[in-house]
Amino acid sequence: MNPMHQPQDVPGAFQAAWNDHDMPALGALFHEDATFVNRFGHYVRGIEEIVGLHAPIHATIYSDSTLSNELIDMVAINSDAAIVHFWSRLAAGAAHPAGPHAVDTLILAVLTREGDAWRIKALENVTLTNPRTGENVLRDTPAV
Q1: Which residue range is the domain that position 33 belongs to?
Q2: With a threshold of 0.85, does the pTM exceed it?
Q3: Would you state the pLDDT for residue 47?
């Protein structure tokens, strides 16, 4: 597992669990009663349901996918709670029925601290789309 020692660690920890297709590691990022809203608006509560939402797609259409996450900002609510926004680019591979393609989303995560570890209490993922056409929009990324 990729432990989160500060709220800003969530984009990297989520990316690492996804890219390793490690569903126990993904589940470990969340509080037991956490909520998750995927990019299609599907709402689930609890680690079992969060992992249950992701495990089948990681075994099939996203088995060769990767995420690339980038922190936008972190806002501390208090010393034990924070809101984190980050960009996420999903690169689907040949296993996806639509073939290789990319999807950009904006993720909002609320984290709280228990002891020295931060965990996700709520996460919502929003696909970037053109409101007039419904087409996915890829955000411009800075040249590396």
Answers
A1: 7-127
A2: yes
A3: 97
